[in-house]
Amino acid sequence: MAANDSVLNSAYLVVEYIDSFLPENPLQRPFKYAWTYMLDNYTKFQIATWGTLIVHDLIYFVLCLPGFIFQFIPFMQRFKIQQLMNLLALPWNTGPGFKKVQRTLNKIKTMSSCCVLFRRLKGKSRISENFQTVVMSRTRNFRIRIIKDLPDCRKSRILRHQRDSCTIKMSSRNLTGAFTMSTEDSEGHYPNEAAILGLERFTARVEFFSVARVTAYLVVEYIDSFLPENPLQRPFKYAWTYMLDNYTKFQIATWGTLIVHDLIYFVLCLPGFIFQFIPFMQRFKIQQDKPETWESQWRCFKGLLFNHFSTQLPLICGIYYFTEFFNIPYDWDTMPRWYMLGAQCFGCAVIEDTWHYFFHRLLHHKRIYKYIHKPHHEFTSPFGMQAEYAHPLEILIIGVGLFIAMMVFCNHIILLWAWVVLRVMETIDVHSGYDIPLNPLHLFPFYIGARFHDFHHTNLVGNYASTFTWWDKLFNTDSQYNTYQNKLKSQERKKK
């Protein structure tokens, strides 16, 4: 019996330890309020009897409702079991559903054979004029076409990702030309860019995707083919095409980025400004004993305007040259798909968070703090507008992480804008001073949130990360915050 108790206690401690790393459930507070209200207003008999009856019948009929609605939606009929059996009816090689799966599998096979072909060609020491003929003689299913001429380019990237192509990256010290190889299926289409061939010092050098990455790409594309068309895609495409036809690249990169940044920044600052006039929202304010004053907000606003015109505007004016140097496209056809855009933004957040943690921690050194980082901590009770209120030199130092992330992941101007929107949204949220329970950003694992960063402004120590908590946990710079949270929890238990 004692052995069983020790095992249970060990399992309980392990679960509690893992739970301490997880972010707080945003639904816990409203659920606790509703449960307490139920206990205070109903008897145990009513809860056990009528509560169970309501839970069973309500869930039953609510879950039956989608199936009832699906029969009136033509799009959903493709998922009906009898309908799928008809599509895949024997003989299997004649069903349209099987043909679609077969085409997907054939794509994977052609990708693999293309990689094998490139391995064979890699040993050639020199590329002659009949190189295309050599490739065509190896197999009739491959064709070569020139993408772009890049003479004497030290760093070049051809980054392409669209519905009918895979993402391709190439970097070379002395690249004289670049070719792409496409695969032709039985229907005469070119579904995917298979790999890329570069000419480096007249030696064939090949960089290609592994079969696993190509397979993952095709699986996502196959799933995406079943999803309904985005209703905003057509108007967005029209607006994007109109922008390209009426404005230059410099205007798009400079004024477009400025509008995206400033519009998103002040629009997202607006809710926090309004919350101070709503009594109901004060229950979510972290430091309720330190309300915002008009003087502090006005001083912050003037400092923001100074930073935007003196520091950020010159940096934004350099974005055009940044995109030209790294060959970042603007057109609609090379715009990344939504899932790639989300993955790239996450990668940018990881890189920026790493840079921000170490240099933010460096700026808190006693010999540096008062010269650079101190203006950002003028307000011990932060509010949304204060997110970018900082010394110009600090903006330059911390902003390097944002551009490093762009150099690694950016393959289209839309990614730069999406990353700016995400970064502004995140930094305003952690500086808002309000811990809103239903905040959608809390759904991201290891997200720091407003309460985590508010402790940093209150105590000027620890919690240095900008987005994720893992660096603070790894270097134990969140120990004081954890001690403070445990103290608050113990006080709440004593009140009960």
From TrEMBL:
One Pfam family matching this protein: FA_hydroxylase
Keyword set, alphabetical order: Membrane, Monooxygenase, Oxidoreductase, Transmembrane, Transmembrane helix
GO biological process, one term: lipid biosynthetic process
Chain ranges of the Fatty acid hydroxylase domain: 347-477
Cell compartment(s), UniProt: Membrane
TM spans (from-to): 58-76, 263-282, 303-323, 395-420
One cellular-component annotation, GO: membrane
InterPro entries: Fatty_acid_hydroxylase (IPR006694), Sterol_Desaturase_Related (IPR050307)
Recorded GO MF terms: iron ion binding; monooxygenase activity
Matching PANTHER family: STEROL DESATURASE (PTHR11863)
Name of this chain's protein: Methylsterol monooxygenase 1
